[in-house]
Amino acid sequence: MNPRSHHHAHWHGFTQMAEYEPLVIERAEGCWLTTTDGRRLFDGVASLWCNVHGHGHPHINKAIRDQLERVAHVTTLGMSSDTTERLAQLLAKITPGDLSHVFFSSDGSSAVEAALKMAFQYWQQREDPRPKKTRYLALGSAYHGDTTGAVSLGGISYFHELFGPILFSPIRGPVPCSYRLPEGVNESSACDHYAQTIEALLEEHAPTIAAVVMEPLVQGAGGMITHPIGFLGRVRELCDRYEVLLICDEVATGFGRTGRMFASQHESVTPDILCLGKGLTGGYLPLAATVARPHVYKAFLAPQTESRQFFHGHTFGGNPLAAAAAIASIELFQSSGVVESVDAKAARLRHRLGQATDHPNVGDIRGRGLMIGIELVADRESKTAFDPKHQIGRAVCHNAMRRGVWIRPLGDVIVVVPPLVAENDELDNLADVIIESVESELPGGDSGVSTIASRVEQIP
Question: Tell me: domain 60-336, CATH 3.40.640.10, correct?
């Protein structure tokens, strides 16, 4: 490997560049990507979970072009563009409950960072300040992004352990998983068990906790960990009872992904602060938002001389081109019925994937809506994981790419997150390729592991 070779000019995130072989996209249309060497790949992870309406949608393309003719960038520090103003009003209208004050940034991690600082500053300067409320409660196996504050919330050692010396320590909650349940807990008692664990932590630490931070319903990068039904609603009740803010990170789950516009709506929950990103622009341009309820916003209002304004802001937050794409995407949501189609598409995809449930190494197929994870295990009865050195998930995804489907694993969880507009025949093909790839890499069960281990170094 020559580190000065041309394809090392671009240093890729979460990618071992010593083993990287270029995969470069030249163009895309609908749910399909075309590489510079002419391969056609189905976009099975919606370009990292953000593409909603397909690539090259004419309505979004036109909105961006029209905005480009007027103004490409205006700061939101003390001024704005009319397009960004319109988007803020639209988000206040479509988000749950009385969420009504929108702070813009450029990516999901930044939206979470803004939420952390917003919650902290709220407790310091509301009418009856609670200056001891400086900590956060985060779930086990949490993932909220890669900036320092967001990483501090994280509970995945693979992503976060290395950076321990520069992070703050949250109060760590349970992993509210519906697959790997604690001893003595079953499916019917899981919600109560996890909620009681959260309550015990709040009972002990509430005077120092500014907010509970969680992904609602599904913890995406944690491995598509799917929460028991009712858990989110219970956490909302507990936050109210113990006077703690609830921050819902819907960067991954928002904008139709779970079959509702926002995952929080499944349990009629309005968080105090909502974090949005990924699908906000339909996957076209970088934009994120942190949306607050009136009681949070009110704590920041005062004469200029009191210095109570929100001490946060980025150069490109609320960029008009990105805002134009977001408005166009929301207009498509309102006119196309794409959210309403998700449940039927998800049921079809899950049914098709269900053909793999008899495979001895398919431990679980889980998720909500078109946000699905397939966990591969060494032993299904004991739910024993494969040794990470075998890189089973990586091998299966590479096999799928040879069959014309682009997917990425989270360890040995195969992530299936297609664009919401994928047609039934495309979803059928996606499921068939995944099943074929699992069976090819694990023929007859875990006996295929030695074969995978012998060739894993050849996988780009």
Answer: yes
For CATH 3.90.1150.10, list the domain ranges present in the chain: 6-56+337-458
Helix axes 82-94 and 320-336, enclosed angle (nearest 10): 40
Burial of residue 294 (CB within 10 Å: 0-12, 13-18, 19+) is: exposed
> Which class in CATH covers the domain with range 6-56+337-458?
alpha beta
Give the CA angle between residues 104, 407, 383 to the nearest 5°.
105
What is the pLDDT averaged over residues 285-296?
98
d(CA 36, CA 438): 27
Q: How crowded is residue 359: how many other Cβ atoms within 10 Å of its Cβ?
A: 18
Chain-centroid distance, C-alpha 283? 13
3-state secondary structure of 404: coil
The conformation of residue 384, written as its DSSP 8-state character, comes to B
Q: What is the DSSP letter of 445?
A: S
pLDDT digits 0-9 by tens, 66-84:
999 999 999 999 999 999 9
Sign of CA dihedral 218, 437, 18, 48: negative
Please, what sign has the CA dihedral across residues 138, 139, 145, 151?
positive
Nearest to 84 by CA among 417, 324, 371: 324
Q: Which pLDDT value is given to residue 5?
A: 59
What is the DSSP secondary structure assignment for residue 238, as one 8-state letter? Answer: H
Average pLDDT, the chain: 94
